[in-house]
Design goal:
The protein has five helices and four strands, in the order αααββααββ. With 160 residues, the protein is α+β, with helices and mostly antiparallel strands. The protein has a single domain, classed as 2-Layer Sandwich (Muramoyl-pentapeptide Carboxypeptidase, domain 2). A hairpin with a 2-residue loop joins strand 1 and strand 2. Helix 1 runs antiparallel to helix 2 (33-58), helix 2 packs parallel to helix 5 (116-131) and helix 3 crosses helix 5 (116-131).
Amino acid sequence: MKLTDAEVIELLQYSFVRIDGAWFMGLAKTHGIETAWDADVEAWKQFSYVFGKKLRNEHIKEPVWPESFLEAIEILSKVLKIEGREVSLEGDRIVVRVTDCETQKAIAKANIADCGIVTIHTYQGLVRGLFDKDVDIEVEHTQNLNHGDPCCEVVIQRRS
């Protein structure tokens, strides 16, 4: 069997989301849901920081706010297969609205958690990796599909 590059990427996207959920559920089963959440937040803080740093070192050499952050969100969304996503600049705020997300679907299916707190830390870590200490952001998860909202909505603002 020979897979195309697109088929391999699709398998990687599927696997990335599923391994994230599998280790979370395993940790929750063994050590409790609170421990799993704490570990999940720490894992995503570290991953997003390293991912942002890799983007800065290899692809976005001289990051500029907000354009480079928007590019980084686009890349991360492709990695995580977040397809139903709309990103807009509304004044000095970046608003991300998601209606189709593999992670959210897996969380809803497992009925154990929601990803709001992890999303906040992921965007903050991405900024730290991409901009080092030059940019600080405030992130608010204002709507959540797993709470019955029409989308997941995250509002991001640069702190002065």
